[in-house]
Write a structure and sequence with these properties.
six-stranded mixed β-sheet, globular, 13 strands, disordered C terminus, 10 helices
């Protein structure tokens, strides 16, 4: 009688010739060791992009959800992903045992056992936006230098100023929302359009200039015989009340300028930006009629001067290819993937969050992962 073996491989028991079973186990062991050596490097390409995609999608959905909360007079809540740590464990064990009786007794016994275990242990830490960090990120005004850096880096000046500024030299921007809606001045619209034209033509520039107790932001107005440059610069001078000889303008935070070479910008906080954006979200007519959400009536003149920058649709079911969508109050809300302006403005809104960290950075929680 040939010696046989009982082999247990991931919970299964089979009868096979001993020589074949041992050969199979050796092959399995080599494959297991090879897999152990390649788990770390091969996981980087997969995990890195998978986590980036997941964090990005959750960030977009969180932003849209909080816009809806503001629209319905709920409190916005932000949760940051503080850390992502993933550990893998792949182990294997091979056991051989045997028992022999007297010759020709027919009861020789040999056994082989195999065990294996694979574990994927992600540790994700969330950090709610609260306390001092909440104040810095949502309540404090966006720093003036950050706004000018955005313009200098290529963002359209009219878009940046339209979203982030309440007034420039007492000229009021349009503002939506319950309790403090504000109609915009036509001169404010003319000013940001002129700044945008000058930006495109290369008629203005920015730099930091050291002052007695701070670094002042200075804007240059370029003199040129080229009408594409000179025309918007003249308009800027006219609207701001500047003399023909003024070339450097100090940009400061405030409502009123102190002199003819200063421009006072009253920047918004992120919370004010959220309120203004939320006022343009399309909501079901039933919610308006029942008073669940505030109305937002805009005159035709205001709509022409300050059109909506973002379109958020609502309905019973969002399209499968929506750029971002969430469920809220038994309704679907989404941004159409074909609406390039809304997508660009929505992404710009998320970028603004990184410009509001004016204090010390709060340390992320420490996560200890045991090494094996």
């Amino acid at each position: 009688m040939k010696a046989t073996s009982r082999s247990r491989l991931w919970g299964s028991t089979v009868q096979r010739p001993l020589s074949i079973t041992v050969t199979g186990l050796l092959c399995f062991s080599m494959l297991l060791l090879t897999a152990c050596s390649n788990t770390g490097p091969s996981s980087i390409a997969r995990d890195r992009f998978d986590y980036v995609t997941s964090v990005s999608e959750s960030w977009k959905r969180q932003m849209l959800l909080n816009l809806l909360k503001v629209r319905y007079t709920d409190a916005p809540v932000f949760m940051d992903v503080a850390s992502v740590i993933n550990s893998y464990e792949l182990t294997g064990e091979v056991n051989l045992f045997g028992q022999l009786a007297r010759v020709d007794s027919g009861d020789q016994i040999a056994g082989v056992g195999v065990t294996g275990r694979y574990a994927d242990k992600p540790t994700i830490t969330y950090q709610p936006l609260a306390g001092d960090k909440f104040t810095r990120s949502l309540m404090l005004p966006i720093p003036i230098p950050s706004l000018l850096y955005l313009i200098q880096s290529g963002y359209p000046a009219d878009l940046v100023l339209r979203i982030c500024v309440n007034s420039i030299n007492e000229m009021q921007n349009s503002y939506g929302g319950a309790g403090r809606s504000q109609a915009g001045d036509a001169k404010f619209r003319e000013l940001i359009d002129a700044i945008r034209q000058s930006q495109a033509a290369g008629g203005l520039g920015m730099k930091l200039k050291s002052a007695t107790d701070r670094q002042a932001v200075v804007m240059f107005l370029r003199q040129s015989t080229d009408e594409s440059i000179a025309a918007p610069v003249r308009k800027i001078r006219e609207l701001l009340g500047l003399s023909e000889t003024t070339r450097e303008l100090s940009i400061v935070y405030g409502t009123y300028p102190e002199n003819s070479t200063e421009v006072a910008m009253l920047s918004r906080s992120i919370l004010q930006v959220l309120v203004d954006f939320a006022s343009h979200i399309e909501v079901p007519q039933a919610d308006l009629a029942e008073g669940r959400v505030y109305g937002n009536e805009i005159t035709p003149d205001q709509e022409r001067l300050f059109p909506h920058l973002i379109a958020v649709r609502s309905g019973s079911l969002a399209p499968a290819d929506a750029f971002v969508s969430v469920q809220y109050r038994n309704q679907s809300f989404w941004i159409d993937d074909r609406d390039r302006q809304s997508k660009a403005v929505f992404n710009f809104l998320m970028i603004l969050f990184s410009l509001t960290e004016t204090g010390s950075i709060q340390a992320a929680p420490i996560v200890t992962v045991p090494a094996r």
